[in-house]
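Supplementary Text 2. Reproducibility record for the structural model of the 209-residue chain.

All settings were left at their defaults, and a single model was retained for analysis rather than an ensemble. We include the record here because the model underlies the residue-level annotations in Supplementary Table 4.
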Amino acid sequence: MQAQDFDNWSPLTPQEVAARFQAFPGPWWIAGGWAIDLFVGRQTRPHEDIDVVVLRRDQRALHDLFPGWKLFAADPPGTLRPWSVDEYLPPSIIDIWGRPSLDEPWAIQIMLQEDDGDDWRFRRDGRIGGPIAALGVERCGIPVLAPEVQLLYKSKSLRPRDEHDFANALPLLDQGRREWLAAALVLTRSDHPWLLLLREAKAGFTRPT
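Retained model, structure tokens:
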């Protein structure tokens, strides 16, 4: 099996990720489409992979968390190379892909989040950020990326799955989360089609269980 076989996935479940990351020394969050579905409280679509976010400063602990696994750094523009235990990945590298062995499918993608002490920073626009303590929420005992932050990352491409995730999350966003996402979108793309929907959303919402 080749390292560049990007589409061959057998992802860990959110529960399997949570069990493994119990030993992680820093904060972490489920990201991507699973973050939205966990926030919503049910799986609304298939997920071909699973994403996890950790702070860049905590990256070395990942080798201890996945002993014997094959971890690869995603070098731009879209190539994978083995990530050695003694290499500290620079800001130009955002993603780490992992598989139990070279003969098995990919099982996890880990994204490195920038921070400056107690705050995180949006990698596409340094004006956007906030307290690390508020970067996630918890659903069923699993830390997930805050929905407004995940939707901001999804707002760039507007793929059908991103539109699906936005539509499912929007009714559950309280006023503070809607306002935060709208303010961030104004900075990144003032004509974004989600802005009107965010402004028209009703103030009331149903909190997921």
